[in-house]
């Protein structure tokens, strides 16, 4: 398993979370992949996946807020 090397975007506290805890977040991993903390919406969104999309039994559909992704945009590499 890879290691977290940095947060992508603003911290939950910087985005307005009073406690800074239990909020969506995005992290870059040492292997170049990204990890996302979000709300598990697999059960509700799985039936709505387009016909050309699928997920493995080990994969979950995770929802993050629009604000979280917008704040991360500047930190996401182009390539």
What would you say this structure looks like, in words?
A three-stranded antiparallel beta sheet has the order 1-2-3, with helices on one face. Strand 2 and strand 3 form a beta hairpin. The mean pLDDT is 91. The chain is built from two helices and five strands. With 79 residues, the protein is of the alpha+beta class.
Provide tags for this entry:
79 residues, two-stranded antiparallel sheet, 2 helices, 5 strands, 14% helix, globular
Strand content: 15-25%
* Sequence of strands across the biggest β-sheet: 1-2-3
Q: What gap, in angstroms, lies between the N and C termini?
A: 22 Å
The SSE order reads EEEEHEH
Spans of at least 5 consecutive residues whose pLDDT stays below 50 are: none
Overall pLDDT score: 91
Number of helices: 2
Q: Whole-number radius of gyration?
A: 14 Å
Helix/strand-derived class?
alpha+beta
Broad shape: globular
Give the helix level as a range of percent.
Answer: 10-25%
Largest sheet, in brief, is: 3 strands, antiparallel
Q: Would you report the number of β strands?
A: 5
Question: In terms of topology, how is this protein built?
Answer:
Blueprint lengths: L3 E4 L17 E5 L4 E4 L1 E2 L1 H4 L16 E2 L2 H7 L7
Antiparallel strand pairs: 1-2, 2-3, 4-5
């Amino acid at each position: 398993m890879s290691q977290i090397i940095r947060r992508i975007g603003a911290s939950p506290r910087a985005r307005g979370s009073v406690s800074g805890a239990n909020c969506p977040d995005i992290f870059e991993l040492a292997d170049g992949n990204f990890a996302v903390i979000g709300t598990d919406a697999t059960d509700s969104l799985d039936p709505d996946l387009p016909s050309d999309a699928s997920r493995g039994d080990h994969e979950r559909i995770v929802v993050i807020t629009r604000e979280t992704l917008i704040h991360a945009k500047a930190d996401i590499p182009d390539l």
